[in-house]
Design a protein that fits this description.
CATH class: Alpha Beta
Number of helices: 13
Strand content: 15-25%
Shape: globular
Strand order of the largest sheet: 3-4-2-5-1-6-7-8
Largest sheet: 8 strands, mixed
Helix content: 40-55%
Number of domains: 1
Structural class: alpha/beta
Number of strands: 8
Bound molecules: adenosine-5'-triphosphate, magnesium ion
CATH architecture: 3-Layer(aba) Sandwich
């Protein structure tokens, strides 16, 4: 395509189509349920007729493939190494969601270089017009690229558990975000709560600490219970939401997604999408 045709195509895409809302799912402490919550919420959002892309951003250590029981051939590591197009690595997954695999195996752990980042950003910009939501599962590592993506999305969903170590790490993470990206919306979910009260207390503590010390409002999305269906589903390599739709955790997840979409509506138009512009400004500094 000529440069001019390419420009025209971009202009038309922007003018006549949607721009995806970008979400990052993060935690302070690892292993608190980010990937499971990402995949299952994505499925629930897709069931409401929205187009969802899950981007496993735990580069080199991703496990969304494993959670979905898929052995994807192409992933973000191949994309960088073999100069693939982003369309080559977007899988139309089961349950009506699309996803990009992070690749697995330590050999593939890599920091994105400038050239790949530029290419990725240009292609992500196109992709944004094809989806309603792009959800980044951020993994546990706090690499430079991870943090930049994190600070560029509109909505950040922080996952904690009721454990004190998880709570303090969630607080540190939210503090970092609220200082470096004050305009981002912060949402909070408490996962693996044995009792409702324990979950409520966890959410309230974090919410009031954020208000008191950083003057930042965070939106509590809800509490997910400790539920053995999660482990069972993981072992079967099926998402719990589709495998056990009547389990306690699926019912709660449903509520959380509803809360998120309700909150999201309030911002939808007031905050136009700055995701790619922000990312560019980070990488071109
Ligand atoms: N609500 C829950 N009830 C019971 N077990 C859970 C629950 N949530 C998560 N788990 C357990 O925790 C494990 C880790 O979950 P998951 O992989 O989603 O965490 P993660 O935050 O993505 O981890 P990482 O930081 O390594 O990316 C699951 O395989 C499951 O066994
Ligand atoms: Mg994970």
């Amino acid at each position: 395509m000529s440069d001019q045709a390419e420009k025209l195509r971009k202009m038309l895409m922007e003018k006549y189509s949607k721009t995806a809302r970008t979400i990052a799912v993060v935690s302070g402490k690892g292993g608190v349920g980010k990937s499971n919550i990402t995949v299952n919420s994505a499925i629930s959002i897709a069931q409401r007729g929205k187009k969802v892309l899950v981007f496993d951003f735990d580069i080199g250590m991703g496990n969304i493939d494993v959670l979905l029981g898929i052995d994807s051939q192409n992933n973000i590591s191949n994309y960088i190494k073999n100069n693939l197009s982003i369309n080559d690595i977007v899988y139309t997954g089961p349950y009506n969601i699309s996803y990009i695999s992070a690749g697995n195996g330590f050999a593939e752990v890599l920091e994105l270089d400038q050239t790949s980042i530029r290419r990725l950003l240009a292609e992500l910009e196109d992709l944004q017009h094809l989806y309603d939501f792009i959800i980044f599962d951020m993994g546990a590592g706090a690499t430079k690229t991870n943090l930049q993506v994190l600070l560029s999305v509109e909505d950040i969903i922080v996952i904690t558990t009721p454990e004190p170590t998880s709570i303090t790490d969630a607080y540190s993470m939210m503090k970092y975000i609220s200082i470096n990206a004050p305009e981002n919306n912060l949402f909070l979910i408490c996962n693996r709560s044995e009792r409702e009260k324990e979950g409520k207390l966890t959410l309230e503590r974090l919410q009031s600490a954020m208000k008191k010390f950083l003057n930042k409002d965070i939106h509590s999305l809800g509490i997910l219970p400790e539920d053995s269906h999660v482990r069972k589903a993981v072992i079967r390599q099926e998402p719990f939401y589709s495998e056990f739709p009547h389990s306690p955790i699926s019912a709660k997840l449903e509520q959380i997604v509803q809360n998120y979409l309700g909150e999201n509506k309030k911002y939808d138009l007031s905050q136009t999408n700055h995701f790619i512009r922000k990312l560019r400004s980070f990488f071109e500094r």
